[in-house]
Design goal:
Elements (H helix, E strand, L loop, with lengths): L11 H7 L2 H4 L3 H17 L5 H21 L10 H13 L12 H37 L4 E6 L2 E7 H26 L1 E2 L15 H7 L4 E2 L3 H6 L2 H28 L6 E2 L18 H24 L14 H24 L1 E2 L1 H10 L4 H12 L3 H18 L8 H7 L8 H4 L1 H7 L8 H15 L1
Parallel strand pairs: 3-4
Antiparallel strand pairs: 1-2, 5-6
Bound molecules: arginine (ARG).
Length: 455
């Protein structure tokens, strides 16, 4: 394709280091779509004849059908998907195929293909996140009033509802959806027609090709058009942030599925056995989601380091932009699907959660608040009295709500029997009605709002 001024072919290693076809063949659908838009525009503008444009367009369809049926051949001599496709079209329809590459370069071609691919990948992730979000809402609704220990420092802190805990993840996912949408909107300008770097003297219509490919318009600067990979980096930042959220939920599944916690039983479909310990049910999928998040982060780092300090416009380093994006996308798609399956099918052990919430003196703050509200103590003093009440409960080996009134009154005479109204964990969570609080009523209201936002 470019051998005109060369007397010798490339060395075998040169060929091997130069070729991107082993991975960029994944762009074939986008490459065909970009070429079809380009050649139809060339015909409409009179840059090639309408007949030649139609012949090339038909050739592209033929090659697309071949790729769909048999896969893309991996000929290292043809370097990349762009040359591979052009060569196949030429075999199929003859030398007229040589007119396809008029007024474009592989530089604007690959930028366009890759942007189209990332856009499709974004849409795929958005659809998957919608399903995941819906699964979270179903489980949150089911467990809106079930009480569990809430943790800080992984120490039992205050009772919360499981529904509230699940809805915290829904918040993260809703932000992820927003981020992916923002990134998609910002990226939706078409580089095609930037040519090698400077634009072209041919009377091309960049608005027409941009519209044909579903972009909002053409990119505004040809140098930026061929050298910008922000869209790929943004995809990876969104993916990293999302994977990070998934890793936190995955970690909770791992912890919660352990015997000491016993908060969740993963379904058979989402557990694996041990080859040596027959009693084991391992949360491998959750562990892998946790692990994959690290790899996705690595992909972001990889592309940022590739792009760092590259001068304008195109440099061959940029060919390395694709593998990390492909890898991260595959890992993220799997991770979202796996977490969706686990969330849908897990059994939450609400009895166990309740028992632990009751045993951890988790309503100590409620007692302190009651002393402030009903007995008029300053909070610091109430905190102190409550600390002594917890100590007494420990001595007696009972939960806070089982400490006899006489014992509590010995700590502070202003305490009366109404205090038991706040010492139960149900009363505690029901009282947390401040905006964003854990009360079952709040959780149900938050689910209604979330459903409205997704719809
Ligand atoms: N395979 C190349 C890539 O992915 C296509 C662009 C090559 N452009 C060039 N001038 N050699 O980046």
């Amino acid at each position: 394709m470019w051998g005109g001024r060369f007397a010798e072919g490339p060395a075998a290693v040169m060929r091997a280091i130069n070729a991107s076809i082993p991975f960029d063949k994944r762009l074939w659908r986008q490459d065909i779509a970009g070429s079809k838009a380009h050649v139809m525009m060339l015909g409409a503008q009179g840059i090639v004849s309408v007949e030649d444009a139609a012949a090339i367009d038909a050739g592209l369809d033929r090659v697309a059908a071949e790729y769909a049926a048999n896969g893309v051949p991996e000929d290292l001599a043809l370097e990349d998907i762009h040359m591979q496709t052009e060569a196949r079209v030429a075999e199929a329809i003859g030398p007229v195929a040589g007119r396809l590459h008029t007024a474009r370069s592989r530089n604007d071609q690959v930028a366009t293909d890759f942007k189209l691919w990332v856009r499709d990948a974004t849409d795929e992730v958005l659809a998957a996140l919608e399903g995941f979000g819906a699964a979270l809402l179903v489980r949150a609704e089911q467990h809106a009033a079930d009480v569990m220990p809430g943790f800080t420092h992984l120490q039992s802190a205050q009772p919360v509802t499981l529904g509230h805990h699940i809805m915290a993840y829904h918040e993260m996912i809703a932000r992820d959806v927003g981020r992916f949408r923002d990134a998609r909107a910002r990226a939706n300008l078409c580089p095609l027609g930037s040519a090698a770097l400077a634009g072209t003297g041919f009377p091309i219509d960049r608005h027409a090709t941009a519209a044909a490919l579903g972009f909002d318009g053409p990119t505004r600067n040809s140098l930026d058009g061929v050298s910008d990979r922000d869209f790929a980096i943004e995809y990876l930042t969104c993916a990293t942030q999302c994977a990070l959220h998934l890793s936190r939920l995955a970690e909770e599944f791992v912890l919660w599925a352990s015997q000491p916690f016993g908060f969740v039983a993963l379904s058979d479909q989402w557990s694996t056995g041990s080859s040596i310990m027959p009693q084991k049910r391992n949360p491998d999928a959750a562990e892998l989601v946790r692990g994959h998040s690290g790899r996705i982060m690595g992909c972001l780092t990889s592309l940022m380091v590739t792009m760092k300090a590259l001068p304008l416009a195109y440099s061959k380093d940029m060919q390395d932009d694709k593998p990390p994006v492909f890898e991260a996308h595959d890992l993220l798609a799997l991770s979202i699907a796996a977490m969706t399956g686990m969330v849908e099918s897990a059994t939450f052990r609400v009895d166990r959660m309740r028992a632990l919430a009751e045993s951890g003196y988790a309503t100590a703050t409620d007692l302190a608040d009651w002393l402030v509200r009903e007995a008029g103590l300053p909070f610091r003093e109430a905190h102190h009295v409550t600390g002594r009440a917890v100590k007494r409960a420990e001595e007696l080996g009972v939960a806070l709500h089982a400490v006899p009134l006489a014992d509590l009154q010995r700590l502070d005479a202003r305490i009366d029997e109404r205090v038991y109204g706040v010492l139960s964990i149900d009363a505690s969570v029901a009282s947390r009605t401040s905006f964003g609080g854990t009360a079952p009523a709040n959780v149900r209201a938050a689910i209604v709002v979330a459903r409205g936002e997704t719809a």
